[in-house]
Design goal:
Structural class: mainly beta
Helix content: under 10%
Number of helices: 0
Number of strands: 11
Oligomer: single chain
Distance between the termini: 40 Å
Shape: globular
Largest sheet: 7 strands, mixed
Radius of gyration: 14 Å
Strand content: over 45%
Order of helices and strands: EEEEEEEEEEE
Amino acid sequence: QVQLVESGGGLVQPGGSLRLSCAASGIRFSDNAMTWYRQAPGKQRELVATITSGGSTNYADSVKGRFTISRDNAKNTVYLQMNSLKPEDTAVYYCKTTGIFSRRDYWGQGTQVTVSS
């Protein structure tokens, strides 16, 4: 039973910061790559950042230099530190992982991030 639970979303002003968390259970967390996606109203879901089991990271061009993905294997948690937030960052943010054997994607419920003055 894989479960991903996001938290940390909220309302922030442009230029502000927010840290999202995704707590995972039911997987061998340290072996799994973890990814953050986001989806704005009326728009397609897009990849924001990913981190491999070895700690390598990748970011969408739109967030490079502003967002940082990290993981704490001891806590089975992946984080997304978001700085210099822009209104365009407004979206529901989702945590995702893929089953190593099944190749099934597992998604969290999402957490809302709203950047507005």
